TrEMBL record:
Presence of the UniProt keyword Coiled coil in the record: yes
Coiled coil: 500-534
InterPro entries registered for this protein in UniProt: AAA_22, P-loop_NTPase
A GO molecular-function annotation: ATP hydrolysis activity
Stretches assigned to the ORC1/DEAH AAA+ ATPase domain: 676-777
UniProt keyword list: Coiled coil
Highest rank taxon of the organism: Bacteria
Pfam families given in the database record: AAA_22 (PF13401)
Protein name (database record): ORC1/DEAH AAA+ ATPase domain-containing protein
Amino acid sequence: MQSDISREDIKARLKDQWLPDLQRDLKELLLKDIGADKDKIERVAAELRSGDTLRAFRLLAEGWQKSGNQKEDGSNEKPKLLPWQAEIYKIAADIPEEAELVQEEARFKASGDDSMYIQLAKGTKRLWRVVSNGSQWRQHIPLRNLVLSHMSMYGSWVTEYRHELLKIRGELLLQIDAWCIAYGSSWNQEESSKAVASGADTPKGPEAGVPKDELQHIFDEILKRLDVLEATYAGKLQEKKIRVEEEIDRGLDVTGTVERSSRKYEKVKVEDNLRSLASQHQKQEEHWQQLMAKLADKLLLSVNFINLHLQASERIEGFSSSIAEFFEINLQQPLEEIKEGLAATMVTFESSDKQTMDEIKQLSSRYRKSLSEQTEKHLLKPLRELTTEAVMSTRFDRFTSAMPDWVNQQPEKAILVDHINLDMKPPHYEVQQVNWQALVRRVVNNQLVTNLAPGKVRFEQFLEELSSGLREFLQIINTNLELINEVKESDEEEPFEVALEGLQRGAQQLDELIKKVEARKSALLGLIKEKEEETFAKLGRLLEEQDANDMRMAGAEFKARETAVDWNTKVKAIWARWLEKGELMVRFIWKKLKDFYTRAEELLGFSSEKNLDSSSTDLATFLAETDEKIESLPFIYRRLFDFQKKVDDRFYIRQTEQLERLKKGYELWQNNFPSVFAVVGEKGSGKSLFLHMLEEEVLKREEVVEINFEATLFEAEEVMEKVAKDLGLAEIDSTEGLIEAINERESRSVVMLENIQNCFIRNLAGYEAIEQLLYLISETNKQVLWIASSTRYGWSFLDKVTSIADYFTHAVESDKLGPEQIQELILRRHRATGYQLVFLPEEATKKSRTYRKLLDDEEKKQEYLQQQFFEKLSKLAEGNSSIAMIYWIRSIKEYDDSYFYINPFQFSNVNRISDLDNEELFVLASFVLHDTLTPEELHNVMHHSLRHSRLMVSRLTSRSILLKTDHGYTLNHLIYRQVIRVLKEANILH
């Protein structure tokens, strides 16, 4: 104990030495902490200015992440002295452990702040001093512990400034993380780095619009806040010194007196207090460091996410570029070259109005060949190869297969920090963990992989559609240029005009294909970009909100999509099936009730007469309108829809099953089994074309003899003579002789007998010719493959009379075209003209709910109207192609340079046909059965006088029901279907 040290000496050393030394050390600690953060932020800012933004973010996060993890690992250690506490002990080592001082006079005088006990004690002290003759009172002070105890007051200052400093760190990490999510994925780090390294301007692109200045502003503001923090707590340090000095001075005055016991500064208590402060400070530091580690993890997660987005964007951009290049090289360039060639052709024909017909034909042939070869070589052939090899599907498959591996660098687990409050001491936050890598992989799979899979893109289907469009383009060009040869002087159009119009429509078709390719390219690139944006927007939103429940729900949602069919879809499918069955049941019940009600009305006599169709028209008007409509059409349309001309092979609707059946029969005949073919169909149903296709596809190795019975021959000698003549067998006057001559021939042959319905007349003596012909066929069917054609109603009649079907081993029908085939028959011809179609709705259709739902989709609306039209047309045509073409032409409302407008299909009743008397109906039935008759032959059929038959034919001809031909009279094909219907209704035809 020092008793020679004075109070003034202690206070002087406190003021001039002990507190200044501690102030200096604490300020150095403050400057060191803040300086370290400033240096770190400056290094990060320097990396940012160099252009390597992601590396800057990693540098910022990883240091604080490691320190936080280290603190977390050592969180169970006993609290140690803090640096500033060590400095206190160092200073205290030079302070005397104890001091004994004379009590000041103020220790004997009561003050207003003293308690009653202190006041009483001071009074006692004064009394005792008087009794003891004024002896000095001394006080024992544990000086070192007193100073240590009060210097520990600096702990609150240290705790406060550390809290504010760490709060600034945390806010910096949060701001950088928010910036990353908001802007970080919008720029390309690599391009930016290259630009900076090369001294070039910042690349223009997605990164150009990102506010990087805002990022620099964040760092500048943090540095300013650190400067303010430094100045603020330097000032508070000075304030704390004054407070500590006052407390120590007060302790020197009252310690060891009745006012304050010396036991307050016992060594154990002082050390316990210092350890308690160290423990509290260490807990706060550990709490902060753990939070900093979590925030650093959060920032690194965002950085990894940005890196994934950048890498994915780079790969997707490269893939998109390859797709665009594919379109450019394989589709767009060849199409543009063909367009240029077509434009040159059109210029040539525009200047050909003064050339001769032969010169125009030569031009037509040359350019037709040139365009066909160019299209085939540069487009159709490559497209076939691309489709067969599935080049684009392979590309998409490889690209999408690699996508799940992109997320391998993402952390398996993500630490989410939410509900952060940095103002609380210690700060409050909540931490949850989610399976981040699995979530990212599922989102990538469902948003990108699934939508870009080859099965979804269906690129080969697009190439097939494009090939079909190109073949249609060539068909337009070839058809129009070929038809120049058929332009007659009586036609209003000039040959070069026909060619030029066809080329113009071909150019329109080509422009549509070019637009289609461009649209497909844009749609594909747009889909890739859209799905990329959706994928990373979804992940970015989950990352920004930091809601673990949302992430788990999203993961479960995408997992469900991967592993199971959506239950909603299943329920909808089941409901749709039951709904369809219910609708069918309701329709069935309603139909039965309606039939019952109708029959009950008839039985009870309540039924009313049916109103005549208000849209009916008479025969003259019908024929006039039809002729007028045909004449008003463009030349190309008149030619392609002329049902009286031979049909071009490319417009033929193949009946594969029928041809296959006859092919098998032909193979039997080749193996010496007798085979005889029959082709049966209504007039105008394509029997001749069917025979032609049979010859081209099945009988191409055979030499075919064609015998056509254009006129009616009912004498056996006439039929045998014609057959013998066409077979090259002269001077044979009997059927037996013809049979013998045929069977003696060394080579086998194929003979086509067209129109065998003209080999009889409906008369008791009129069947000899057909019977002899059938006898000839049956006796020679091993040596000759007989192929006969007949109209449907003539065949049906002959079968009842002569059992003609028994003589033929294979019979096929040419008039059994279904709705789809009728539609293809019409549209194949129409497409060759180059015009577009617009189907118009009828009033009833406009009111239908189905139609109204399609009003905002023109393409689907047209598909619906087209389907309705052809369903009705098919029912009326009953498989007859010529009938279908007639009513297609009648349905044309108008046309312009590009479009044909089609009225809704309506079949008008023809009253004049319905009003025919029974005699006229039987006459018409004869023309249906025989196809061609002269008045003399009609006289034999009807058993009328020759004069009466001539008058009947004349009357029906004047009304355009019959038409005169080179071989007699035949039924007007324009009203063929109406006549058939009337005869069936009259129970004359079956």
